[in-house]
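Record pair follows.
FIRST:
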Amino acid sequence: MSATEKSLTYKIGGDIEINRLGYGAMQLTGNGVFGEVSDRDNAIEVLKTAVESGVNFIDTAEAYGPKFNESLIADALHPYKQGLVIATKGGFNRPGPNQWVPNGNAEYIKSNIEGSLERLMVDTIDLWQLHRIDPNVDVEETLKPVMEAVDAGKIKYVGLSEVDVEQIERVRKLLPIVSVQNLYNLGERKWEDVLDYTAEQGLAFIPWYPLASGPDKMAERIQHIAQKHEATTAQIALAWLLRRSDNILLIPGTKSVTHLHENLAAANITLSDDEFEALSKQ
């Protein structure tokens, strides 16, 4: 199916309609996704430009900074434009730059949720996602404060990240899940079965690291198609994802307003059947 105008929107949970090309705010932090962003004024401009350009889905996390990224988003965009969905995540300790340690302790998860509400300046988080299932903590224990937050109206919808089908089904016995955020792009497709499962089950699939274009052996193929469309390699990578499945929501990140516009322009690229099939061959 071509990436038509109709397929460029998606309803999270069946009722929150968003544009499938969103924005991932992780890069708006210090080196190693740690600390405050170096150029805060530029970061605010990127966020405002994204929303002004039609982005109504922004992905962040307590762990980005940590905490700084959520506060930055609130400083830049609050009071939020009607229809803007800000998804956040919890469940990682950040002892230092580029260090990510899963923490599924219930009290820690509860503090993540309460902190995100405060920093984002919202009464309800539209989409809260568990960064990782902690192998050292029963997922039922991890999700207790999440379920309590849902019951209290503090979280509307819940998602998971880096999970397999068995883990998704285990969690779905506890509470409804509306999205899965796994590593997936043109060159990394180990989660094909999860993507297909989410499409069949009516769940959103949010690829992280969506701009990777694949191994060197694909470079010539991608470049040929990019030249035909007068597009960049990154735009073709995004266009392929939009075409791959209608439940894919994209969150490419950048610190550049110019690159932001380039990424969003990928929505205007329609790959032919032959082009899509050529890119799909690894």
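SECOND:
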Amino acid sequence: MSNPLDLDVLWGGYYASIPKDGSGISVFRLLDFTRDAYHAALYGETFTTMPALDDLVSLAPWLGHAPIALDSLLNEDDVQLIGGKPLSLDDLEGYLYYLEDFGVSEAERNQLVQSLLAFSQSEPPIKLRLELVDNELQMTERDK
């Protein structure tokens, strides 16, 4: 059993990834979240203190899309939602190339894009707890 991670999942959300060694706060933006992976835009800047949302929205991603195994979030000391901004089609460009390379049809990509854009505009964060139980990732909703 691993230490659980409480995570507020917000499509279009900016997150601080705080390493255990205190080497600097890195930032990613959540594009999509699935049972096995999260898809994120990664930023090259690191911060010594928690950045504000206003500090992040004008930054350009260093990498527009990266698929990352969901259980890797448990390797961080802390992952905190800083805030969110609705996704745009431009924000999802790298993700769409990725999906196309994996043979996802144009119709399925368009449907996913519409869902992601809608989620990022209207949905409140989903409060989850992630933990490894018997080497299997478990996700449960939490109240707070």
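COMMENT: The CA atoms of residues 5 and 130 lie 5 Å apart.
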